[in-house]
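MODEL INPUT / OUTPUT PAIR
PAIR INDEX: 1
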Amino acid sequence: MKKLTDIPCTGCSLLCDDIVIDVSDGSISKVYGSCSHGTKRFKEVLATRLLEAKIFENGITRSVATEDAIDKAVEILSSAEKVLVYGFENSTNETIELGLALAEKIGGTFDTSPSICHLTVPLLEKYGVRIGELEEILDKADFIVFWGANLADTHLRQASRYSVFPRGEIVKTGRENRIVATIDVRKTKVTRIAQHQLIVNIGEDLDLISKIQDAFSQESSTEDDVAGISQLSFATFMHDLKNATFVAVFVGSGVMYSINVDQIIENIVKLVKSISTKKTCTVTPLAENLNSMGVTLISKKKTGFTYAIDFSNGSPVSNPSVTSVTNQLLRGNFDAAIIVKSDIFTHIPRSATKQLLKIPTIALEEIPTLVSEFASVTIPVTLTGLETGGYITRTDGKKIELKPFLKPPKNMFSEEEVLRKILSKI
């Protein structure tokens, strides 16, 4: 048995790099330090993974060699007029760059699953607000705000490892010297650790942001209830906010369910900018998937856009109301699709799903999904972080290098290798 230390966990976008793993006879026997998401990733994925490449043709599914499946994928992509290149939120940074290169080469559309990162990153750049790095928050932040973030469902170790409980360089006693506030439309499990539990009336986030801005700027507080929050609760929240030295705001996917999500996120960023004039204040989007931040930042750097990027006219264009995967599927724009480690059927409406089922689809996947079940070509790929390495961008924008520790099955490639082969043959 071999004990491995400091292994990065690919269970979520926190990429906790303190995991200890016992490896015996080429398999994982024990995992130490991970949350349930991480343990599931390390242990269950090995038992459920895809092992055979398959082609569905003339109503029959047959197992084939991986190289034959790649050749069939090349045939489909080469003969198509407009291809959807989708996914990559669970892939390495290197794979994301190849996906963008493929979409550009064949004049397709590059898109990925909905993410808070898509909306937040351009606004941070626009207003000159920086993302809070997790280690800096651990060391220095004495006021933590979780806005629309239910960590108990998404990022299980966020509070225990990076923000609330640990002792930092400046905040030496950890939890005892940190104030925690949750802002949400309902109580969640994370509100149990918060001194300030602000339950906002549905649709009134903007009103709350405006009142916080006014109270912070004018050094006074409202005498009325705010967005369903009592005057007393709001006043005590503002008192602690004003007395803090380092405010770290985490924006979660709960905000995405608001009708006016764009306005809410923009006003949160503007509020952070305003608070930053008097004290340190950062905002960090809590990425929904392993590399949602990576696919957002790389797309922005390469094309100027974060999602729904269309290359059909040569230069990248993004107008989500026109170029998003759902809108283009509903208009019947695509005649082929390649989906990389993303269960698109859970991200788009059923009406768009029906259109996707009408076109040949190529799936690069680790485990069985609805996409791999219905795909014309299914190509199994190696397990990222376990069998193959590369870099993933953590939810705060920091690049983390993976440390693979298992050998993949014979004749199985990573999605990066598969895409390189496809690109070389088109």
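PAIR INDEX: 2
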Amino acid sequence: MCDTVVVLSPKGVLFAKNSDRDPNEAQIVERHPAADHPPDSLVRATWMEIPQARHTHAVILSRPFWMWGAEMGANEHGVVAGNEAVFTDQPYEEIGLTGMDLLRLGLERGRTATETVSVIIELLERHGQGGGCGLERPSFTYHNSFIVADPEQAYVLETAGRRWATEEVRTGVRSISNGLTIPGFAETHSDRVKTRLSACRVRRARTEASAAEATGPAEMFSVLRDHGPTPRYRLLTGGMDAPCMHAGGLVASSQTTASWVSDLTSGLHWVTGTAAPCTGIFKPVRVTEPVDLGPPPDDRFDPNTVWWRHERFHRTVMRDPEAAFPRFEAERDEVEREWLADPPPTDEAFEMAERLARTWLDRIGQVEDRRPWWVRRYWAIRDRRAGLPDAKRPAVADR
């Protein structure tokens, strides 16, 4: 489950997205340079090969480690995009392009938001969308919606199978979540049960309200960190009622595994590269500069990877966020204010963020887990699956 929001104002265009996926589904921030390709060459997406374009633009992406496609990203021409899972009345194809594949292909081939939307539509109609999209449940699949923006314009693109609808965002705030929203298309094609279970309407209302006064990236950071004073968990769906999502439901559950904010006026993008924006720091990245964050992560704890090193801090904080947040939030916010005024190189920002997380972890110390029992159980199982060194083995069956 995810949320994407765009703001158009006289001051420019702002974009933000939380990528909500399975808790151990580490995400990679990576840059791919522009490239020319031989005639008749193919590109292997997540589940299928398709004809490659003769030229692909430079992109920077945030993608789940096991997918070819990306949850969110930007290209050298100032186009950004984010996708959402949506549930519809159209059949789900066993093999096709995933929404993440479509997003990456659109950014690699489109010079403007308009072109990028056209690329996605053309590929959708030709190849369809399908294939498994889940790590814990490999057969889990869905259709997709997108926000695509550049410094001049923004669009919502929603799909149901190979059908689609678009809406131009002319001014103000527009957000999408895990349900269709374009009038007429939504009423015709929504799967009402799954859409309601995703709590998308609740989150969409929160992101549109909180982004209404946004004038820069700092306010968009806050939009993505919103879960009220502390996360609240429902028995069936965990923390899915808020954009800063924390897993822990018995029926449906997702965790924000990476976050992204773009200021399209300056052309600077801000990424966490880690789970839970409330525990992470947004670091600047640029499409024009290489990104080298060390070895790529997977779904097993690896202290050599940026994403998993942060998980030790993130998962400690979430045992008792009410006690832990006050011990680091002010410093986190001050660092971001300094970086917004004078953005450092990407590698320096990531190094400093990691040093701070280690300091904050020492400051927090031992934390008693005060979450509801079902949330404790949920995370104990995921910690064990990931092989976290301090993971407790619960006296419960895996699920």
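PAIR 2 NOTE: The chain has one domain: 3-293.
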